[in-house]
Amino acid sequence: MRLNTFFKNFMKAVKGEEKDFINGSIKRAIFMLSIPMILEMVMESLFAVVDIFFVGKVSVNAVATVALTESVVMIIYAIAIGLSMAATAVVARRIGEKQEDKAAEAGMQAIFIAGFISILFSAVGIFFAKDILRLMGGEASLVEEGYGYTKIMLGGNITVMLLFLINAIFRGAGDASVAMRVLWIANGLNIILDPIFIFGLGPIPAFGVDGAAIATNTGRGVGVLIQIFVLTRAKSVIQIAWRHVKLQWAVIMNLVKISLGGIGQYMIGTLSWLFLVRISAVFGSEVLAGYAIAFRIIMFTILPSWGLANASATLVGQNLGAQQPSRAEESVWKCAYYNMIFLAIVSLVFGVWAEEFVRMFSAVDEVVRYGALALRVICFGYVFFAYGMVIGQSFNGAGDTKTPTVINFFCFWMFEVPLAWILSRTFDFGPFGIFLAIAIALVLYAIVSIFIFKKGNWKTVQV
Prior knowledge:
Elements: H1 2-15, H2 26-55, H3 60-96, H4 100-135, H5 140-155, H6 157-172, H7 176-199, H8 209-231, H9 249-281, H10 285-301, H11 303-321, H12 325-359, H13 365-397, H14 402-426, H15 431-455
Helix pairs in contact: 1-2, 2-7, 2-11, 3-4, 3-5, 3-6, 3-9, 3-11, 4-5, 4-6, 4-9, 5-8, 6-7, 6-8, 7-8, 9-14, 10-13, 11-12, 11-13, 12-13, 13-15, 14-15
């Protein structure tokens, strides 16, 4: 009977039948929001794996081109994620206040901001694609073979920007199932089109690595069109009408202010990863490869955790808007608790079968040894980070993006990176010192986040 009930609720979550998250059972609200968010991120992760799989069959230069271009696209991701955090926070707050028209207004202003930024990046990508690849260290042959990919990806970056942003608007409105379905369609279409445009089919010529960019922009472009269609429907939780299509500078400035913290969080995390990669490189390619493999395994397996964290952000925003700060806080603690249970299970699995997981990606014994060590040590910290990641997203959901940015800066730049250097080099712990520093930093992040969260200042943030 319980299994049957679970399946029925699961299907309701996927279909998006639940719309009210400020009343009733908090456990049910968490379930209904987190399921589509988890499935959304699973597809995004699958897309990245499939994309590089097909590109890898073209040439070494093709893979390198994608890697170099992605380094630049990371800046676009940072802006898109930061703006998405702001959009989710403001829209969720307006929905909780029962001001659906104001939520639609905020969503439209966020789209205006994304469109303006996209135009700037498009201009740079279209006119300076070769220069970008040269600046990133690409050799002459790589530049000639791959600049088309860079031009198309950056020139069409508006599809990536809007797909991120509008899905964040849906999540803020509590319509996570729409965000999930759009991403599944967009990325599913990209997976189908990838081999067709890369290798050719019938009258469609083989575009090589350029085909991967064409497929990505086409798939995500279709996703954006679906998003716009849903946003303008009368049945949508948040409906954008012609009256909203005008610039509201006060709303724009508020969104920009909130988004700066989100951008900072993403950039801090990305750069701290790069610093740790640089420290790992000192100990040889086997250590670097092991660390990289372990990191990717961990990031893939904790996708459900981000689903719970994003659900927490929406619940906080909507309940604060409904003047229910106690319910908002209770939602966070429940999400964090469920997240801790999940990550404890993940850590136990990695603790027992770490070598087997790493060996799926490399047969080199030294790589497997260091990758398994990284998995075991880092995952010890992820049990504690379960609370940190949920609380960090909850700050964002409240519109307080500054606090998690400061916490990230202190724990990862000021603490983690120096500690990794000291433990690995000064105390001669070697690679174990790097992995231990990451685990300790994650524990510290959780402790600091819990301490600041309990002070309750996030409950009074105005957005």
